[in-house]
TrEMBL record:
Gene behind the chain: oprE_1
GO cellular component, one term: membrane
Organism: Pseudomonas tohonis
MF term (GO), any: porin activity
Cleavable signal peptide: 1-23
Keyword annotations from UniProtKB, A to Z: Signal, Transport
Start and end residues of each stretch annotated as Disordered: 182-209
Name this polypeptide is given: Porin OprE
Segments crossing the lipid bilayer: none
InterPro entries from the UniProt entry: OM_porin_bac, Porin_dom_sf
Family: Belongs to the outer membrane porin (Opr) (TC 1.B.25) family.
Length: 455
């Protein structure tokens, strides 16, 4: 199905919405917000292969959300306008005499230079019946099986449809289909893909030198059930056509203790090949997944590039007053890395180890983590908070044996609580990664954020 199949129902819904705009609710309940993000980015690739990146940019996001028309079936329209501006830096790709990497914040021109600006517009038609809602058009999913990335100037967006059913007490059902994605530094859409298939490969690095391969659709369904005030259970199924099928089971529990509160977050993913990736001929065409398929697997040649991963994790967080102390463990098994949709231009995954620089999601990886958060409000400084985390991964399967890596993250954030600048936020995020499986990196991010309600 091509993009026109989405544009037609969207256009019809828009026409209906606009035609009924005079009905109560559509305009009366509408609102718009302008969000600003000023972003400074500095990265030092310490292995010397890619040099240093230093950039400064401004992101603007305009969100419009209408109300619904009156009647049994309510109709509405949402819109999101995105604009990214280059203020300084950006580097140039492929320039041998320049020790800088390509832009981390902006798309590139044909000559490899960072663009001065990029923008996009997304429209979403919505229908409401009772407590349920259907949305068609631009979506920003934040689900266990697919999660939009928002780590740069502008958020990643997807095109598709989603149905959310809330007709049952304590139970939410979701289902949908996504067809294309627009990266966090893009103004155009791409078909969906995964790590290992989203860029041309050189001979010797895979079964062939096949070009990038993509999927026509990502389908998902899920349920969130609130068992009681303390316990929530989740089940989700995600399937990327021609690549994989993924099952997710999650549990979130909060328990008051005689001293403080304990939160438990348990997650399990089971991801297997389907479609072209499940066949040797399909993988020979380039429908492959990144991973390790070397000695130790008697059928490694036949299964090279096949999606095969299980991931389970547990994260425990204890809070007392201004303090939150967390500890967790994650274990991956199977031949492939952990797999979720990835266009190769920045993605998030729903793992407890998905952090500023690394996701600790390689084949066979086992990761311990510890983190500590402090809210300075209890000490007379409301709006000021900090967090530090350390993650250590080991057992990464590779041609060089089992490898290790670690990451240390530090965040300091402040939000103005009163006065003319109320709501203005400033955040500093510093991280270091040392890895035997990838590059060593030191990175700093500083961003100012502010949201203004227009109406």
């Amino acid at each position: 199905m091509t993009a026109i199949h989405f544009r037609l129902p969207l256009a019809l819904s828009l026409a209906l919405a606009l035609g009924l705009a005079e009905a109560g609710g559509f305009l009366d309940d509408s609102h718009a917000t302008l969000s600003l993000r000023n972003f400074y980015f500095n990265q030092d690739n310490r292995d010397g292969h890619a040099g240093q990146t230093e950039e400064w940019g401004q992101g603007l996001r305009l969100d419009y959300q209408s109300g619904y028309t009156e009647g049994t079936v309510g109709v509405g329209l949402d819109a999101i306008g995105l604009l990214g501006l280059r203020l300084d830096g950006g580097g140039r790709a492929g320039k041998a005499d320049q020790a800088r990497t390509p832009s981390a914040l902006l798309p590139l021109e044909h000559d490899g230079r960072a663009r001065d600006e990029f923008s996009s517009l997304g429209l979403t038609a919505k229908l409401r019946v009772g407590a349920s809602e259907a949305r068609v058009g631009t979506l920003i999913p934040r689900l266990p099986v697919i999660k939009a990335n928002d780590g740069r100037l502008l958020p990643q967006t997807f095109e598709g449809a989603q149905l959310t059913v809330r007709e049952f007490d304590d139970l939410t059902l979701l289902a949908g289909r996504l067809r294309q994605a627009k990266g966090r530094a893009q103004s155009h859409r791409d078909d969906l893909s995964i790590n290992g298939a989203n860029s041309p490969r050189k001979p010797g690095n895979a079964v062939s030198a096949a070009p990038a391969r993509h999927s026509d659709a990502f389908d998902f369904l899920g349920l969130d059930y609130q068992v009681n005030e303390q316990l929530q259970v989740q089940y989700y199924l995600g399937q990327l056509e021609d690549f994989y099928r993924q099952h997710f089971v999650g549990l979130n529990h909060e328990q008051a203790l005689p001293l403080g509160t304990l939160k438990t977050d348990l997650r399990h993913f089971d991801t297997r090949a389907t479609g072209r990736n499940a066949s040797r001929s399909g993988r020979a065409e380039g429908y492959t997944a990144a991973g390790y398929y070397g000695p130790g697997n008697g059928e490694s040649g036949a299964h090279r590039g096949k999606v095969d991963n299980r991931a389970w994790s547990a994260l425990f967080s204890w809070s007392l007053g201004a303090h939150t102390l967390g500890a967790g463990y994650q274990r991956l098994s199977g031949d492939s890395h952990f797999i979720q949709p990835n266009q190769g231009n920045g993605s998030d995954v729903y793992l407890i180890t998905d952090r500023q620089l690394n996701s600790f999601a390689r084949a066979g990886e086992r990761t311990w983590l510890a983190q500590y958060g402090l809210d300075f409000g209890a000490w007379g400084l409301p709006g000021l908070s900090s967090n530090v985390a350390y993650l250590k991964g080991s057992g990464i399967r590779s041609e060089r044996g089992h490898l290790q890596e670690w990451e240390r993250d530090f965040t300091l954030a402040y939000v103005v609580q009163a006065g003319p600048a109320k709501g203005l936020g400033i955040t500093w995020r510093n991280a270091s990664l040392r890895s035997q499986a990838s590059s060593d990196v030191d990175q700093n991010r500083v961003f100012l954020t502010y949201s203004l309600a227009l109406f």
